[in-house]
Amino acid sequence: MSFKFHIVAAIAVGGLAGGASLAPAGPAVAQTLGLTASPAATASSTPVKDALLGADRTASEAAAAPAETSAEVASVETAPEAAPQAGTGAAAPVEAVPPAPAPAPETVAAVPSPQTPLAAAILRAAASDGELKAWYAARDGRPAWTVSGGELDAQALLARLDEAESHALPAAAYSPAALRQRAQGALASSGAPEDMAALELDLSRALVRYAGDMSAGALVPSRIDSDIHVFPDRPKAMALMTQAETAPDLGAWLDGLAPTDPGYAPLRALYARLQTEAASGGWRATLSEGGTLRPGQTGERVTQLRARLAELGEPTPASASPELYDAGLETAVKAFQRRHGLNDDGIAGARTFAALGADVGSRIRQVAVNLERMRWAPHDLGRKYIVVNQPDYRLRLYEDGKLIHQTRVVVGQRQHQTPEFIDDMDHLVVNPSWNVPRSIATNEILPALRKDPYYLEKQNMRLISTDGGPVPADPSFVDWTQYSKGHFPYRVKQAPGDGNALGKVKFMFPNQFSIYLHDTPSKRLFSRDARAFSHGCVRVENPFELAYILLAPQYADPKGSFQSLLDSGRERWVNLKEPVKVNLTYRTAWVDEHGQAQFRADVYDRDEAVWAALEEKGLAPAY
């Protein structure tokens, strides 16, 4: 290895050295930095010449350089020649000794490669690091980073670590300032092998952690909330180091680890804008407490509403009477409501004022949390997939990257939260029966039976014994007070029909939570702007249209085929020829395809849990 790496290290790290000059290094310094020098320099190759030649040194010159030697390589012993006998002029005859047979090839011990003191120190430093030990062992301790004489651009890594906060990643966890200071010191002096090895390993650890956080998130989602069942595929250290070493441009490779979702960069830009807004003092318009404001009303609160909307990017046309809730203000309110998932009725009620009253710090936290969620997401859900965004109460179906269908949904109540997970929808059931979950049977149906013994009959339900005992023929003769949550020896099943809680169709992606999408006979809840009313399953407002699309690959007339199944009145299972991924996710902030910032209420308080975990990791607190 030539001395070009010493000069390249100074150039590559550039500004890290703060303009420090690079003095010519002698053999001892080169040995310390992991560079080799010939024990006997020739006229055609000297340390100074090598440093000056740098990258222009030709391959032929490198090949002509003297071979490396090492005091650690043991000398080969030879048998002594026979000495002449005393008093004679000729050597005494010596009994011939046959040469020892050469060892078989498989028994020849491999001679270890010569190691520099730095390489040996790197192997010692890596010995306790299970993540990096194998990678450095495979390269016999050879340094990887420019500050140690390797190829990986330390400046590019440190620049990305400096920018980690702009991704809402905890830069403090990577210690870029401390690493930069140590790198500057390494360039200014040779450094002891142990210190150089420690810097080498810490740079590699920082790369592994940053690259892993960027590609799979800084947090383990399933540890944050019991209803988050998301398991990002975090890359292994050895794979990351190998990819980094072989990348033509380390900086570009690190940048490419960010989520491929086209919404990631716009959300990151929103994060920066909100921080700028916070640094300048945030939103200043006062919002006084009071009731609902409607078009036609006047007063100081109308003026305040107009000012706050302007601060939030929804300016209203100039008005001669700013205290009047005029048509221009109504239009601005509707636009704001749409960006916050509210019914755009132009009436500023409690939910609208709650969204208006969120301060800039809370929005910064919200965006940071959702940048992290985007890093958890899989890079590819397939050609056709469904996304149910729970805080948005909306289902979207995509095919070949395009949105082809969307509809409103109802999700679980706070006490029956819909979990986050991904699974494969492989069949649907037309005219489904409903096997009532035991929690609903004991918590809701049993009390209803105590009040009305004919409740089951009215709901088209029947009892099924779970202990082999008889089922009462007439529920009106049963003393239902003898049963409790812990002692109820029946299952409850509801037959298909107009009143079935699952409606006319359910969409199945078998999972451990018994969660699925389904129709519902009760449509009134879909008109609400907040729709968390179910026991955990997802109710779909327009399920027939969804069924037609899913059945299209296997029926020439999917609508007619579905209707035929429906008209049978019997429960019918239909396997999907093309299974579809279903992603039950949780996003409260994003930038839509029109460049509009979208925010939703944190219906299950999961944002706060994720933010607290990011802060614990070292993410700087929001304003």
Give keywords.
623 residues; alpha+beta; 8-stranded mixed beta barrel; 3-stranded antiparallel beta sheet; globular; disordered N terminus
Give an overview of the whole structure:
With about 625 residues, the protein is an alpha+beta fold. The protein is about 35% helix and about 10% strand. Strands 1-2-3-11-9-8-4-12 form an 8-stranded mixed barrel. A 3-stranded antiparallel sheet has the order 5-7-6. The protein is globular. Mean pLDDT is about 85; it is low at about 1-100 and about 105-110.
Nutshell version of this structure?
The chain is of the alpha+beta class and 623 residues long. The protein has helices at 4-13, 27-32, 47-53, 59-64, 117-126, 130-138, 154-162, 176-188, 193-216, 237-246, 250-255, 264-279, 300-311, 327-339, 350-356, 360-376, 438-451, 455-458, 543-551, 558-567, 606-617, and strands spanning 384-389, 394-399, 402-412, 421-430, 434-435, 461-465, 490-494, 505-508, 517-518, 532-534, 538-540, 572-585, 589-591, 597-599. A hairpin with an 8-residue loop joins strand 8 (505-508) and strand 9 (517-518).
List the topology elements.
Blueprint: H1 4-13, H2 27-32, H3 47-53, H4 59-64, H5 117-126, H6 130-138, H7 154-162, H8 176-188, H9 193-216, H10 237-246, H11 250-255, H12 264-279, H13 300-311, H14 327-339, H15 350-356, H16 360-376, E1 384-389, E2 394-399, E3 402-412, E4 421-430, E5 434-435, H17 438-451, H18 455-458, E6 461-465, E7 490-494, E8 505-508, E9 517-518, E10 532-534, E11 538-540, H19 543-551, H20 558-567, E12 572-585, E13 589-591, E14 597-599, H21 606-617
Parallel strand pairs: 1-12, 3-10, 9-11
Antiparallel strand pairs: 1-2, 2-3, 3-11, 4-8, 4-12, 5-7, 6-7, 8-9, 13-14
Helix pairs in contact: 1-3, 5-9, 6-10, 7-8, 8-9, 12-16, 16-21
